[in-house]
Design a protein that fits this description.
274 residues, alpha/beta, 42% helix, binds N1-cyclic inosine 5'-diphosphoribose
Length: 274
């Protein structure tokens, strides 16, 4: 006689419960993977979109090509081990024209410099050129074994020297200084203890690349408040003079921030008003 095996109701319900758990777990894993994938993709997309949009504000550049050259510098690499040279291909495609006698450098004076250059179309900072404009204020990095761009949790200045962002600024600042010509101006901060700090990009990269006779003079504008901390006789500024290539004329002037704001008026003629 044929025997038919019936499962008990408890057994059946336990099995159904088990299947449901597996399905729920699978669904969860899929959702997490999709969300994670989308977030990572979004990171790449957001940076890429900002980059391309900013690039398109300049005429005559192949923005997709420039993005490709930029991205290859750090994608798939340890974000603490991106060399300065990794950005060479980016520099090669994102060429820019030097603006002789109008190039403006700065150290620890970013806001006052840009407030000044934005209102008056006379001086040109690195951020006014394609090279500096594309990534100004942004953070990015890659990861070993990944083809994504991350915009959060990237190592910073205190984490490691050769981080993605620092190497970038070092490379583009070098390119900007290599192109400097004629009379060059630099705004330094007179409200800090060391206005010409040896570890700054201005001191360690840019000044070293000012060659005479391409660069003829360097005018330092030491931006002060009513009660300046440093003045033009500061020891670090003596170091700056010593660092300069022979033949380059040096000058330094203490100018209050309030006066620089007055100088920012678009009606003033081009050139310094200090
Ligand atoms: O280290 P710094 O100043 O002396 O660098 C400033 C110097 C300028 O003359 C620029 O030509 O180097 C160039 N430069 C930038 O244009 C720039 N934009 C944004 C260097 N760094 C720049 N940044 C970011 O600010 C970047 O993250 C870098 O490390 C800081 C340096 O600012 P700082 O210490 O005031």
């Amino acid at each position: 006689m044929e025997s038919v095996e019936y499962r008990s109701p408890e057994k059946r319900s336990r099995r159904r419960c088990c299947i449901l758990s597996v399905v729920a777990l699978l669904l969860f894993v899929i959702i997490v993977a999709v969300v994670l994938g989308l977030t990572l993709r979004q990171n790449t997309d957001t940076l890429q979109q900002t980059f391309i949009a900013r690039c398109k504000e300049f005429e005559g550049y192949d923005c997709e090509k420039i993005w490709g050259a930029f991205e290859q510098a750090y994608v798939g690499r340890d974000p603490c081990n991106v060399s300065v040279e990794a950005y060479d291909p980016f520099i090669a495609v994102a060429h820019f024209k030097p603006a002789c006698n109008r190039m403006m450098f700065w150290s620890k004076a970013k806001d006052v410099v840009h407030d000044f250059t934005e209102k008056r179309d006379c001086f040109v900072t690195l951020e006014d050129t394609l090279l500096g404009y594309l990534l100004d204020g942004l953070t990015w990095c890659g990861k070993e074994g990944s083809s994504e761009t991350f915009t959060t949790d990237c190592p910073g200045w205190t984490d490691c020297q050769n981080n993605t962002v620092r190497s970038f600024w070092t490379r583009v600042s070098a390119a900007f200084a290599d192109a400097a010509c004629g009379n060059v101006t630099a705004m330094l901060n007179g409200t800090i203890a060391i206005p010409f700090h040896p570890a700054s990009i201005f001191a360690s990269i840019e000044v070293k690349r000012f060659d005479y006779p391409r660069v003829r003079s360097l005018d330092v504008i030491l931006v002060t408040q009513e009660n300046p901390v440093s003045n033009c006789t500061h020891a670090s500024l003596k170091d700056l003079q010593r660092e300069l290539d022979k033949g380059i004329t040096y000058s330094c002037k203490e100018v209050t921030e309030a006066h620089i704001h007055e100088c920012s008026s678009p009606e003033k003629p081009c050139g310094g008003c200090w």
